[in-house]
């Protein structure tokens, strides 16, 4: 927990605080993974807090995990939530790492396997 946000991971690496939020992507259109699939105030708050943490010198990352085949790129879903898309672009400009990862899914596991280009 940090401020009003609860992150998936926080830890120290070489004495530096790291904060990581992971989001599962469930919407695909024409080979593009989109997030969010519906407006999310919690997700928006995470991104805004990550941006603030990065501006304070902490490492901050948002990771989007895709569990679908045939995805060529990731984009914020501007149609569903323009404020989230704006916040994600501002976060990247502030130095927050934004990554999207495709996963190999088996009946027993979900394994991050490859990076998907992020288009903001």
Largest sheet: 5 strands, mixed
Describe the strand arrangement of the main beta sheet, using strand numbers.
Answer: 1-2-5-7-8
The count of helical stretches stands at 2
Inertia-based shape: globular
Tell me the distance between the termini. 27 Å
Helix % is 10-25%
- The count of strands amounts to 8
Give average pLDDT, whole number: 93
**Given the helix and strand composition, which structural class is it?**
alpha/beta
- Beta strand %: 35-45%
Kindly provide the radius of gyration, computed on alpha-carbon positions and rounded to a whole number of angstroms. Answer: 14 Å
- Give the ordered list of helices and strands: EEEEHEEHEE
Low-pLDDT residue intervals, each spanning 5 or more residues: none
Quick synopsis:
Helices cover 22% and strands 43% of the residues.
What does the model show?
Helix 1 packs parallel to helix 2. This protein is α/β, with parallel strands linked by helices and 120 residues long. The protein is 22% helix and 43% strand. It starts with 8 loop residues before the first strand and ends with a strand. A five-stranded mixed sheet has the order 1-2-5-7-8. The chain has two helices and eight strands, in the order E-E-E-E-H-E-E-H-E-E. A hairpin with a 2-residue loop joins strand 1 and strand 2.
């Amino acid at each position: 927990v940090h401020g009003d946000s609860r992150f998936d991971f926080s830890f120290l690496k070489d004495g530096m605080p790291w904060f990581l939020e992971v989001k599962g992507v469930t919407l695909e259109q024409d080979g593009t993974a989109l997030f969010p699939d519906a407006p999310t105030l919690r997700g928006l708050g995470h991104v805004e807090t990550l941006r603030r943490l990065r501006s304070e010198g902490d490492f901050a990352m948002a990771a989007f995990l895709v569990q679908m085949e045939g995805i060529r790129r990731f984009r914020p879903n501007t149609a569903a939530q323009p404020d989230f898309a704006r916040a994600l672009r501002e976060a990247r400009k502030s130095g927050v790492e934004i990554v999207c990862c495709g996963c190999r899914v088996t009946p027993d596991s979900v394994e991050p396997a490859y990076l998907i280009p992020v288009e903001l």
